[in-house]
Amino acid sequence: MPQPLSPPSPVHVVQLTDAHLFADPAGTLLGLNTRASLGHVVGQVRREQPRIDLLLCTGDLSQDASVESYAAFRELTSTLGAPARWLPGNHDEARVMAEVAAELVQAVTDIGAWRIVMLDSAVVGATFGLLADDQLVVLDQALSGADERHCLVCCHHQPVDIGCAWIAPIGLHNADELLRRLRSYPQVKALLWGHIHQEWDEVRDGIRFLATPSTCIQFAPRSEDFKVSEEQPGYRWLLLHADGRLETGVERARDFVVTLDFDSPGY
What we know:
Elements: E1 11-16, E2 28-29, E3 32-33, H1 34-48, E4 54-58, H2 67-78, E5 84-87, H3 94-101, E6 108-111, E7 114-118, H4 133-144, E8 150-154, H5 175-183, E9 188-193, E10 200-204, E11 207-211, E12 218-219, E13 228-229, E14 234-240, E15 246-252
Parallel strand pairs: 1-4, 4-5, 7-8, 8-9, 9-11
Antiparallel strand pairs: 1-14, 2-3, 6-7, 10-11, 12-13, 14-15
């Protein structure tokens, strides 16, 4: 059982996702330096969120799964001064991630009146996601043992259709297994993910479904084929109230100039 963190209510949470850092500090995606964009977003978080009780980092922290990239992510985000939890995405390698930050890769965190469940949906060598049997067991045990705590469940891959035809095949392939479990537990208030490099916010069956912009390049919403937008990188904030209410919003780095090079190697 995790040792609970005990901040005052509401619990202040920030989500960062899809940083895609390289071992090389000069590494870019479509000409955008991913360390520079993450640093800019972190700086904005620091200015806008004076109190952070928990930082959730929901996958694709690295582009090349290198020790150097994870160390850089940890160093850049440590300036926020908040306890953090990481989970892997399809570009990550869980073993290397654990070499750098094993204590941050925890499946269950109790904080205030809430239980945060971090699931690994990455499949080695694949872009799509799948919750393996051991992860479903983790989820079942976390939810059945939550007692009176409200639950926020996190993974990397999207579990619902977001209207982007090209990204649908690389979502969570056993999403029905996940959603069936979530609907069985009234304690579950929200499901939070990354991967889609865009904002998503809807309510289904009383559960809030949330996704968050990348800290680097953004994917264009409602696109049939792979397409990026020139929207700025961003992050999500959440206020988790003791009565189970959740407030949340996305902030973008409006003063960050996005300059993309479509002739450079793609995503």
